[in-house]
Amino acid sequence: MALVHAVLQAYTQRHMAPDAALSAAQITPRDLARAGGHVAAQQFERLCAAAMRELDDEALGWFARRLPWGSYGMLARASISAPNLGVALARWCRHHGLLARDVLLALRHDGTQAQVTVTEQRDLGILREFALFSLLRNLHGFACWLIDSQITLRAAEFPFPTPAHADLYARLFPGTVRFDARRAALHFDAGYLHMPLRRDGAALDQMLQNALPILVWPWRRDRLLAPRVRNLLSARDRHHTAATLAAQLHVSVRTLHRELRRENVTLQRLKDQVRSTRARELLLRSGMPIRRVAVAVGFASEKSFSRAFRQWTGQTPVGYRSQADGSR
């Protein structure tokens, strides 16, 4: 219901009555007055569709200028011919800046991690939460649709306090959700960027006739294996082998290795990434002796751990901890 009230605020800004849109969504005055109430996803779809057309603003009051009906469809058409998701998202971010200068979207990535960030160029006012929530949800939903795969998020970050309806974020952003962040951002596995698009212009035409469901409903299917393997490896209750991982993923060991190679990664590299992250976390945030850190991340001896840690970071565990302590 908090999102419903955000849509109604767009009407207030335009000095217009929302009665027709509420009627189309079958949302009654009693619904609006109910504390902590909810509406069905389909009701919210109908409300947004009616409001976007009636206000002629697909941004629903977020920005200083309206985004006329069809604006986000134009962004989608500019992205659909991309060879892979990385190029498509880069186009989306760049072209969004041509539509609205109130925010700047940017895609950045290194070898393993990717992030889309939102930099606010002006005060978004009372609709700030709705704007940032919707910008990231829209981009994530469209990206999942392009590759027909759920993009599991390492984190979704928002630069405002935890709202009363935080459970909504947990449902619509699959992964860790953080509030009071420096800026709005999505963090995910860079492997998704290399995935080819599974949609064409004809599919886009059909989707745009009823686009809101991909923004309101989370995608369910994940075609990329590496993030799922990494999540299993990150569980701290056991040390996985290829056999145990394959069993949990319901594939053969041979298929596991073959699919990871297709995603330009190996099981050993994923293990090293997870171990390195965990080791650095323990060295920075605990006073645990190096020997215990080695055991905690799966090494039989401090010597073998130190050798591996130097390969990962170029530093010894002792040197890494000392440097971190000195910079505080």
Which descriptors apply to this entry?
328 residues; 4 domains; five-stranded mixed β-sheet
Can you tell me about this structure?
The structure is a single chain. The protein has 328 residues and is an alpha+beta fold. It has 4 domains: 1-55; 69-216, no CATH class; 226-267; 268-323, Homeodomain-like (Arc Repressor Mutant, subunit A, Orthogonal Bundle), CATH 1.10.10. It is 55% helix and 9% strand. It has helices at 2-14, 19-24, 29-33, 41-55, 71-79, 85-99, 128-147, 166-172, 201-208, 212-216, 226-234, 242-249, 253-262, 267-285, 290-296, 302-313, 317-327, and strands at 103-109, 113-120, 153-157, 175-178, 184-189. A 5-stranded mixed β-sheet has the order 1-2-5-3-4. Helix 1 packs parallel to helix 4 and helix 5 packs antiparallel against helix 6. The longest helix has 20 residues, at 128-147. It is elongated.
Short description:
It is built from 17 helices and five strands. By secondary structure, it is α+β, with helices and mostly antiparallel strands. It has a five-stranded mixed sheet.
Number of strands: 5
Number of helices: 17
- Rg to the nearest angstrom? 23 Å
Please, what is the average pLDDT? 89
Structural class: alpha+beta
Beta-strand portion reads 5-15%
Total domain count? 4
Helix content: 40-55%
Separation, N- and C-terminal Cα atoms: 44 Å
Silhouette: elongated
